[in-house]
From TrEMBL:
Location of this chain's protein in the cell: Cell outer membrane
Domain TonB-dependent receptor plug, first and last residues per copy: 116-218
Extent of the signal sequence: 1-23
Protein known as: Outer membrane receptor proteins, mostly Fe transport
InterPro entries cross-referenced by the UniProt entry: CarboxyPept-like_regulatory (IPR008969), Plug_dom (IPR012910), Plug_dom_sf (IPR037066), TonB-dep_rcpt-like (IPR039426)
Natural source organism: Xylanibacter ruminicola (Prevotella ruminicola)
4Fe-4S in keyword set: no
Keywords for the protein's UniProt record, in alphabetical order: Cell outer membrane, Membrane, Receptor, Signal, Transmembrane, Transmembrane beta strand, Transport
Amino acid sequence: MRLSLKLFITILMLAMSTLQIVADDFTLKGKVIDEEGRALELVTVSCAAQGKVTMTNLKGEFSIGLHTADSVEVRFTMVGYGVRKRLFRKPKGKMTVQIVMHTAATLSEVTVTQRRRQTSQTEQLDRKDLKQSPSTTGNATEELIQQQAGVSTHNELSSQYNVRGGSFDENSVYINQTEVYRPFLISSGQQEGLSVINPDMVEKIGFSTGGFEAKYGNKMSSVLDITYRRIKGFEANATASLLGASAFVGYGNSRFSMSHGIRYKTNRYLLGSIETTGEYRPNFIDYQTYISYNPSKKWTIDLIGNISDNHYNFKPENRETSFGTLADVKQFKVYFDGEEKDRFSTLFGALGITRNIKDSTSIKLLTSAFHTKERETYDIVGQYWLNDTQTQESLGVGTYMEHARNYLTADVLSFKLIGHHRTRYHDMEASICFKTEKIKEQSREYEMRDSSGYSIPHSADRLDLIYTLTANNSISSNRIEAYLQDNYRWNKGNNYYTLNYGIRLTNWSYNKETTVSPRASLAIVPAFNNDVTFRLATGIYYQAPFYKEMRDTTTVNGITTAVLNDHIKSQQSIHFIAAADYRFKMLNRHFKFTAEAYYKALSNLIPYNVQNMKITYYGGNISKGYTTGLDLKLYGEFVPGTDSWLTLSLMSTRQKLNNVWIPMPTDQRWAVNLHFTDYFPGTERWKMTLRLAFADGLPFGAPHRGLEQQQYRAPAYKRADIGMSYCALKNAKGIKGIWLGIDCLNLFGISNVNSYYWVTDVSNTQWAVPNYLTNRQINAKIAIEL
């Protein structure tokens, strides 16, 4: 009996202990919404003290089990919204709450605790990385793109870039849903001037290196999607440096916003550091405006305007270059006569009218116009001497003359209708676009080369030119483009899925070609780790010929004529991409690691050759190929409060031409980029930014011999730029800040090769004389923000 009583008391005490343990736990449930009452999915709900974390589902709902205490703090965080905290006093049982998240723009101070989760093939880049970075071009947006994984450039004077083996012509650029164009005759970074993107006006930067959505147009390699910002209140800034100047002013309220920007740039200071001495007078200027007006909640009117005038004037005088190996050094001297005068004038405008039928449904009419008038003219004569420095033997004496009279005008007019509808799980978009294009060109180029008294190629009975080209073409055509896509999000348990699928159709009146391009991508946030995102993407991408790709050449009696090929077809690329993102904390700082493997099957290729930074297409679909590679990126706070990143890219791209597999002209087998930002100890007024680039050299060969003769590879591209900025004044007397900066460009003075000039010696041997890029330079600048 006593034993039974003792057993009963023991069981009772155990039961009471269990009830006490259960009572020490509580469950917090609820819903997270925005200021307009819409559910917010993928909001992080965490209790740091207990190491518990969960996320809201697509309905904005969450549930988390916690231990009770005198006080329990729960945090709600999401990129773009301010951090919300709730403190619960001695919580017990089941509790239900509703949390309203406020956008960052409505808060005076916002702490961002996470990086934006990427659930599509378009990565959102941080625009704050555009500020205070060392720059040679003034094109801050493109310089930010050039530092991303899978992107390469070998010319610091150029805003052009290559993505995963594609040429710079394979990258599309959008500003506020409008596709923008660049001048067509541009052949080198020295002539590029200012890009169409004004960094002072940028709000969002979306960039995709492949597998992009159906809404993006007919390019095979990449998409740069820029959104200009609506100004709230008054804002102004001015910047001046040895490389140019810019000014920006904007004003806005709840219904009206306008911004204006003007930029001036000159490369005269930088070009003075290259080996070819002479008179450089390049100057580039552009003006942009963005005006947005909301007469009511139902209507929005947007206007973008751009005027750009780029001049490149160059009068070379002389040049001396030493090249070769330590045991076999050659010296090349040349004296010049003549000059080059180029001008690229462009006008661009877009008008968008949006009608909001409901909060979740809108329709937009977007019309745009682009006009360019381009001139490329030069007559340059050079007399050169090629010597062996070891024996002082003269290897060659010769003369060459280069002549060009190239003129082009182009007009592109487009009308686009876009419909958008959003539901709880779907975000659907459809569009139809009509474009009309008119292009007219007149070109005349030739090159004469004389070596040791004999013209090349040598003929006993006549004088032949080594290169000649004539063209007189015009085209007037129409394009119809349409797409339909859906972004479908759902969750199954604690697994979250985002599926983007769509189809794009195009028709071109010039060659009567119709293409169908299906595309799809899937992102998965697994239940076992909410900091991991898996991404898969595939699609068929067509690049419709525009102008350069259509020019086919025929040679009769040594004279080459360029005509337009009306049988040319679109190039095709099939993308296969597998990627993973991992967000983690190290040393109490936030980081993100991304790995992306890809394969692109290429067909109907139009091969092209690159000589002295000038791209010349073969004018026919005569090749096929592939591109495969791996891109790695580590992004995060290497130093607290700053953003830095390190990228590594591995790639191989080849094409089959005349039954022979050869490297593509952009076959950059490896590349490493580092962007590092730091503050001086004890102060945030001093800021340092370091940019490093180390990339494999590209294939090259003798001119006018075709891709099959690209048997050599240029040296690796190595460059370091460092910039120091000091905030001399902050938030005083109506001035937001005054920044003083100094940049050291090409810190180590490395002589990078831009291209090669080929000379012929007395034994008819050709020598590749390297053309080097800029040397070490110091640039000082001042920026004032109002």
